[in-house]
UniProtKB/TrEMBL annotation:
Keywords: Methyltransferase, S-adenosyl-L-methionine, Transferase. One of its GO terms (biological process) is methylation. One of its GO terms (molecular function) is protein-lysine N-methyltransferase activity. This is SET domain-containing protein. Pfam families: Rubis-subs-bind, SET. Residues 60-268 form the SET domain. The lineage of its organism: Eukaryota, Viridiplantae, Streptophyta, Embryophyta, Tracheophyta. PROSITE patterns: SET. SUPFAM superfamilies: SET domain (SSF82199).
């Protein structure tokens, strides 16, 4: 047996700890899990259909129920670590190969796997009960239950604007999906029997379903029924293996479960910004959270060109285009700094190096940095500057940046608190909770980084 594939967005690399997406009915941290309830009526035909399609019982360990997170999978009998909880044969995979050949032949090379699989969903939605996949397609969540930021209104996106990474990525993602829709418009027009009345909004919904569920398997992007209901646990180590001889995916438990326990699987090391962008949920106290910090060289700096040249020659960052730096600055991802008295792990060394370059005030200082880089491994200094005053200035510069971000984040959270009483129900309330979870997690990181910088600056004054 060999380790399977990964999600469509994110290769698994060498890890064996795979996982599927959580149900899009996920609640935020403001809504605690509940005792499992019977599955809703819309899935009544789902399990019999799976058994008929497979021709055998594919799991005797798991059942579908409902928790505070929406649909989920629960142990229906004791499960021991190492047990195979679920077997999924190839015949239960929905891929781009399910498109009629006459449709596939019109798709250009610029149409990717996700767009093709979105067309598969749209086709089977059009077929309705005539589709052999109807019981599965009918269980996919409607757009009203999806909270991926691509579905947020401009007003709702303002709530997450302080999270510049997610805000900018959402705008970029919307533009990319619109371009994909344009690239398949001729196919929609040529086959009204399959795609009549498919609008950008419907395509966006189908594309988001693929993006939040599909895997890149041995062949291409793949949707696999039933595993839709696995919820996410960042600590789960459940293994997903592929048996070549039997052509079956096997889900191996990493711990013991008692009857009634919710069975959880790990997505990956994904921060809340990515979870919200692609899956439409956040998790509290997400240890993989990161904050994007954008930093610029001042336009009025007389040494600006020398600094740009130095950074281009002696940095691992993608600074080949100085105009990119000129217009947008450089963006770094910062993680939580666990200890204010440690080494500052979580704040990228490259960010601290950039601050040291910014604070240089003479050509001689820049030349010394270049010489040191050349004499070592070619990278700019990753150790404190010999000039303690300049080292202090560089880190005070950074701390000022973090403090400004903290102020903006606090202001946004206060605004959400003030306006929460005006929204009594519906998507606005859910998305306000999601925005609060996102910004609260990022604020925690910013405060931890600022605390370390403040402490480091104090040591430089001694």
């Amino acid at each position: 047996m060999l380790n399977l594939c990964a999600r469509i967005r994110r290769p698994l690399l060498a890890s064996s700890h795979c996982s599927f997406r959580i149900s899009c009915n996920l609640n935020t941290s403001s809504h605690p899990p509940q005792v499992p309830q019977p599955v809703d009526n819309e899935c009544n035909d789902f399990l019999p259909w799976l058994r008929h399609k497979y021709g055998a019982e594919f799991t005797s360990h798991l059942s579908i129920g409902k928790s505070g997170y929406g649909r989920s999978l629960f142990a229906c009998k004791p499960i021991q670590a190492g047990d195979c909880m679920l077997k999924v044969p190839d015949c239960l995979e929905l891929t781009q190969d399910n498109l009629p050949p006459k449709v596939s032949s019109l798709l250009g090379k610029d149409v990717g796997n996700k767009a093709k699989l979105a067309l598969v969903i749209l086709l089977h939605q059009k077929l309705g009960q005539a589709s052999e996949w109807a019981p599965y397609i009918s269980c996919l969540p409607p757009v009203e239950e999806m909270h991926n930021t691509i579905f947020w209104s401009d007003e709702e996106l303002e709530m997450i604007k302080p999270s510049s990474y997610l805000y900018n990525e959402t705008l970029k993602h919307k533009d990319q999906v619109e371009k994909k829709f344009s690239s398949i418009q001729h196919v929609l027009d040529n086959f009204p029997e399959y795609f009549e009345h498919v609008t950008l909004h419907k395509f966006k919904h189908a594309h988001a379903l693929v993006e939040s569920r599909a895997w890149v398997g041995r062949r291409s992007a793949t949707l696999v029924p039933f595993v839709e209901f696995f919820n996410h646990d960042a600590f789960s180590k459940t293994e997903i293996l592929y048996d070549d001889s039997a052509q079956i995916l096997q889900y191996i438990a990493s711990k013991n479960y008692a009857p009634g326990d919710e069975v959880l699987i790990k997505y990956g090391k994904i921060p809340n910004a990515e979870l919200l962008l692609h899956f439409g949920f956040t998790i509290p106290f997400n240890r993989y959270n990161m904050v994007q910090v954008e930093i610029n060289l001042p336009q009025h700096d007389q040494l600006r060109e020398m600094k740009l040249d130095l950074l281009n020659k002696h940095t691992t960052l993608p600074l080949k285009d100085a105009n990119k730096l000129h217009s947008r600055g450089i963006r770094y991802m910062v993680k939580e700094v666990k200890s204010s008295s440690g080494k500052g792990r979580g704040i990228p060394q490259e960010l601290r190096t950039f601050a040291r370059v910014v604070c240089c005030t003479s050509p001689k200082e820049l030349q010394d940095l270049a010489l040191e880089a050349t004499q070592n491994d070619g990278r700019l200094t990753r150790i404190p500057l010999k000039n303690r005053a300049r080292e202090l200035e560089a880190h005070q510069f950074l701390n000022l940046k973090f403090n400004n971000m903290i102020e903006n984040c606090n202001a946004a959270l206060e605004s959400l608190t003030r306006h929460s009483s005006l929204l009594l129900s519906g998507n606005n309330t859910r998305r306000m909770h999601l925005a609060r979870d996102l910004l609260g997690g990022e604020l925690h990181i910013l405060i931890s980084a600022s605390a370390w910088l403040k402490n480091y600056c104090e040591t430089l004054k001694d």
